[in-house]
Amino acid sequence: MTRVSQEFSRFASSYNQNNTVQAEVAKKLVSMLPKKAYPSILDLGCGRGEIYQNLIDQKIDYAHLTAVDISKEMLWLHPKEDRVTLLNEDFNSQQMADKLSRKSYDLLLSSSALQWSQDLDTTLSMFAPISSNFYSAIFTAGTFRSLHKCAGITSPIYNETVLKEKIDKYYDVEYETVRYTLHFENIYDMLRYIKESGTSGGERRLSYRETKHLIRSYPYDYLEFEVLFVHPKSENIL
User: Fold this and answer.
1) Residue 155 or 138, more confident
2) Looking at residues 109-123, what average pLDDT do you find?
3) Backbone phi and psi for residue 101, each to the nearest 5 degrees, phi listed first
């Protein structure tokens, strides 16, 4: 069942990094894990290692973690240790799936990444045979809802209904929708956050003139984020 579980506000200027919401999302996702140890974990779209850090912080042990990201720069920032294998690959690619197809993982995690899958059906179909224990946090089209409306553009990512339809084909799961609100001191800090945080997916959606109009007309001091949390049904958790 989908529900809004929390809403909080933070001033972006009080943070040194630009992944404020993504960090909160990874923390919540890892906190949903029912066990304190897993033999093998696959992290899709691992970034700089938010999942890894939360596994450490929340004292969830593992024998081996495979972390996948398309960005070499992000993988350079990911912590290194003997139990961790870092793969510079596109998780959308068949090549990536073929590399992992001979393996199975006790746990599949993905935080703030699958919304950028070019074809989520294909991505899920490739990874469902690798692990049936699927935990994910996916930003939905509700992210930047007011900003998109004011700018007259549509979201480049999937809406909640489409996400559920696709995931239900491959996994027996439950859902929780969480909305976050991040406040800014001014519109310029807000636009800088969008550019530098990666939440826009690297797409330039507005012209210079359109951006100027948005700066003048956007009436709020915040951005909205909507995240769909996915986890196995309780009866499926051993």
Assistant:
1) 138
2) 93
3) -65, -25
CA 173 vs CA 4, 34, 35, 80: distances in Å:
17, 14, 17, 32
Mean pLDDT of the chain, nearest integer:
85
Return d(Cα 3, Cα 19) in angstroms, integer: 24
Q: Which of 91, 60, 59, 55 is nearest to 75 (CA)?
A: 91
Spatial CA neighbour of 91 closest among 64, 47, 51, 123: 123
- At 125, list the tokens: 């179909």
Confidence band (pLDDT; 50, 70, 90) for 174? very high
Percent of the chain with pLDDT over 90: 58
Question: What is each CA distance from 92 to 77, 113, 121, 128, 133, in whole angstroms?
Answer: 22, 11, 10, 13, 19
